[in-house]
């Protein structure tokens, strides 16, 4: 038996684990590996959540695709075909749409779970082979507001600009809209360690989550009011003389603008807007400002709003005003969600970016990347549109008519999902590469069964900017191919016979050159180094460089080295409650499912732990509606209706209901969500919309 050191297929913590080969069982398709602890990996020290412990189950199982599928135009059903035939059909279809409607009628939608190599090659494929500007990915739905805010404030976007271990050294942490006790339990030890060291934890969440139960103080603002809350905290800091004036003078610009904006958020007004009592607001401001060191960490709860970027800027303002950035034990960070949400946005999957986190509109960046790719910079397309806009316009005049989806399931995970489903159905050609027949794949004209995680080698970049190596432990099933192979074969069929290797390390070597000199510089990182060092933090510009676990200690990443305050003010959610829709809906995750659930819903142990959607509501509201525990309720927004059993708990505000978003069908939470976009990040407003709730008798 051999054990391969690798990492979990799921979230951005990228826990280390071992995969031990075991004798194949009696059942065909039974896992040939089992998950074992890897205590030497520093991030999780052997600990895994239920998803990680059961990760081997996704490698086998009856749901696994094992041959390409092609939709038969006569019967409308998906039929197994050879790889040759499937790839010929995809290449011909993409070429045909481009010939009839122009190359801008072809688009690509990637995923935050793809390895760096796949994300890189997918971006290159879109821009060099398809020559389309229309590429984006589902990470747009994840942490794009934190990315936009960090870039504006610090000049660099790296989820955490410090290692996770620094959390345990902070004097006070504000965790805004994150629930790691549920979503990444092994990370909780950093927060409990911080409290054992005397630090204080403040959790901001409309629900008293499992994480909130570990907090010294839980603030429960109304959904969509975090900006007001953060600005109210800054107001108290200013009014009570808690500013770090030396830090503001030495390392920042723009404080006066932020101060003026914060003064409009006096405590009584903030209480009115958020529902957070003034004494709690004052207590939180004094706890945070009074601590020697401190951090604000945001996650989707604060970020997935039509004002998500400004909300994160407000949290950054608080850090800067109290001197809690750019020094050990202090700073702003974002708890990235998807496995490679960080790397996925660094290597060219985003509509406005080139590898190395370079801007697609920067002539020098274009010249550098075009040089690596061996093309004329003028031939590189310009920026396209964001993920939701790409899907929203699909199949319409001016939108894409052919779409390649790689590692994403927008039918479940996109906002206003029924509309997105209709748009996908209207395409001339939908191609989906995935490991199972996801709800999006089920709509496709061609489905390509892809190798996954333990079946192929590739790098991922965790939420702390640590580039790690997932090593192949088993061969993919017969009939399954890697996404790199798909891109190589399609490129060749579309006339680009070079520059698309399907060996991961070869792709990574090119990625290193493409990223060299960029913000996310991987030039000094190699597979050998990652293996020897348990990962390497970017930027790492050359082989002798030690990597950069902590950013901003000397200067921030802006041209003048100073961090930027922003004058940001509260504004209501894009959709407010009214007589017809009197409640807020907020959406989120449960511990035993991951994202759209395409993989985890097919793992028996996880499915048993979290078998279906539910609607969480307060006893007061349940009483008014005449709803008992487990009874079916209907939640209706301006976009549709979803039904699920009631789960009654006083851990949620009486004016708010909560649904997890992992399931399709009648209980699909994203049928309800609002696709209103943040003007900068183009993040949809997943976290708040107006709904009504009623008893239901049928699904
Ligand atoms: Fe996997 Fe995340 Fe769970 Fe770790 S916390 S085992 S990376 S899902």
Total tally of structural domains: 4
Task: Report the total helices.
Answer: 23
In CATH, what is the class of the largest domain?
Answer: Alpha Beta
Percent range for β-strand residues: 15-25%
What's the CATH topology label of the largest domain?
A: Rossmann fold
Large-scale geometry: globular
- Please tell me the overall pLDDT: 95
User: What is the annotated CATH architecture of the largest domain?
Assistant: 3-Layer(aba) Sandwich
Number of DSSP strand runs: 30
How much helix is in the residues?
25-40%
Strand order of the largest sheet: 5-4-18-17-16-6-7
Q: Distance between the terminal alpha carbons, to the nearest Å?
A: 49 Å
Computed structural class: alpha/beta
Q: Any idea what the radius of gyration is?
A: 24 Å
Main sheet: strands, sense, barrel? 7 strands, mixed
**What hetero molecules are bound to the protein chains?**
iron/sulfur cluster
Poorly predicted residue ranges: none
InterPro entries: Asp_de-COase-like_dom_sf, MoPterin_dinucl-bd_dom, Mopterin_OxRdtase, Mopterin_OxRdtase_4Fe-4S_dom, Prok_molybdopt-oxidoreductase
Keywords: 4Fe-4S, Iron, Iron-sulfur, Metal-binding
Organism: Streptomyces blastmyceticus
Protein name: Molybdopterin oxidoreductase family protein
């Amino acid at each position: 038996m051999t054990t391969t050191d690798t990492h979990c297929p799921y979230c951005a913590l990228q826990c280390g684990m071992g995969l031990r080969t075991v004798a194949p069982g009696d059942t065909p398709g039974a896992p040939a590996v089992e998950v074992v602890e890897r205590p030497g990996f520093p991030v999780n020290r052997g600990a895994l959540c239920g998803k990680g412990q059961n990760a081997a189950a996704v490698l086998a199982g009856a749901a696994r695709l094992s041959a390409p599928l092609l939709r038969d135009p006569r019967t409308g059903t998906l039929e197994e075909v050879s790889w040759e035939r499937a790839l010929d059909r995809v290449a011909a279809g993409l070429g045909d749409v481009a010939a009839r409607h122009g190359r801008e009628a072809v688009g690509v939608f990637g995923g935050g779970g793809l390895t760096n190599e796949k994300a890189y090659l997918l971006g290159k494929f879109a821009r060099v082979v398809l020559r389309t500007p229309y590429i984006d990915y589902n990470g747009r739905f994840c942490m794009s507001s934190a990315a936009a805010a960090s870039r504006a404030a610090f000049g660099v976007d790296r989820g955490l600009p410090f290692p996770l271990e620094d959390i345990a050294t902070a004097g006070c942490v504000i965790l805004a809209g994150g629930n790691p006790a549920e979503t990444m339990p092994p990370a909780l030890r950093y927060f409990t360690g911080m409290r054992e060291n005397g630090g204080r934890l403040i959790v901001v969440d409309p629900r008293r989550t499992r994480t909130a139960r570990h907090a010294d103080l839980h603030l429960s603002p109304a959904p969509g009011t975090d900006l007001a809350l953060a600005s109210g905290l800054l107001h108290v800091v200013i009014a009570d003389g808690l500013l770090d004036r030396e830090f503001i003078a030495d390392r920042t610009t723009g404080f006066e603008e932020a101060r003026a904006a914060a003064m409009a958020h006096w405590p009584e007004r903030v209480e009115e807007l958020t529902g957070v009592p003034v004494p709690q607001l004052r207590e939180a401001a004094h706890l945070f400002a009074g601590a020697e060191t401190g951090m604000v960490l945001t996650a989707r709860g604060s970020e997935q709003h039509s004002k998500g970027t400004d909300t994160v800027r407000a949290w950054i303002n608080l850090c800067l005003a109290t001197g809690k950035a750019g020094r050990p034990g202090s700073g702003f960070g974002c708890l990235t969600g998807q496995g490679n949400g960080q790397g996925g946005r660094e290597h060219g999957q985003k509509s406005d970016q080139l590898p190395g986190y370079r801007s697609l509109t920067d002539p020098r960046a274009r010249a550098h990347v075009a040089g690596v790719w061996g093309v004329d910079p003028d031939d590189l397309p310009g920026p396209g549109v964001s993920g939701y806009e790409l899907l929203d316009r699909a199949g319409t005049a001016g939108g894409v008519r052919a779409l390649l989806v790689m590692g994403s399931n927008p039918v479940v995970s996109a906002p206003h999902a029924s509309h997105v489903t209709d748009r996908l159905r209207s395409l001339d050609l939908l191609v989906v590469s995935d490991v199972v027949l996801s709800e999006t794949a089920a709509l496709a004209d061609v489905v390509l069964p892809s190798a996954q995680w333990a079946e192929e080698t590739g790098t991922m970049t965790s939420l702390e900017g640590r580039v790690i190596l997932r090593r192949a432990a088993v061969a993919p099933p017969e009939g399954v191919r890697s996404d790199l192979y798909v891109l190589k074969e399609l490129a060749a069929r579309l006339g680009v016979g070079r520059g698309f290797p399907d060996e991961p390390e070869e792709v990574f070597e090119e990625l290193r050159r493409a990223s060299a000199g960029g913000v996310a510089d991987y030039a000094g990182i190699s597979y050998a180094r990652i293996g020897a060092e348990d990962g390497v933090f970017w930027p790492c510009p050359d082989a002798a460089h030690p990597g950069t676990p902590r950013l901003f200690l000397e200067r921030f990443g802006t041209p003048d080295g100073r961090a930027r305050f922003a004058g940001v003010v509260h504004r209501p959610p894009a959709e407010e409650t009214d007589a017809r829709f009197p409640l807020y809906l907020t959406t989120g995750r449960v511990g035993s499912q991951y994202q759209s659930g395409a993989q985890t819903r097919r793992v028996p142990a996880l499915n048993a732990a979290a078998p279906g959607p539910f609607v969480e509501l307060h006893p007061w509201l349940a009483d008014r509606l005449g709803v008992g525990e487990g009874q079916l309720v209907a939640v209706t927004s301006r976009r549709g209706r979803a039904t699920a059993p009631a789960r009654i708990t006083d851990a949620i505000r009486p004016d708010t209901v909560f649904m997890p978003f992992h399931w399709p069908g009648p209980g699909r939470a994203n049928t309800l969500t609002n696709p209103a976009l943040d003007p900068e990040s183009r993040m949809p407003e997943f976290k708040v919309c107006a709904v009504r709730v009623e008893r239901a008798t049928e699904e």
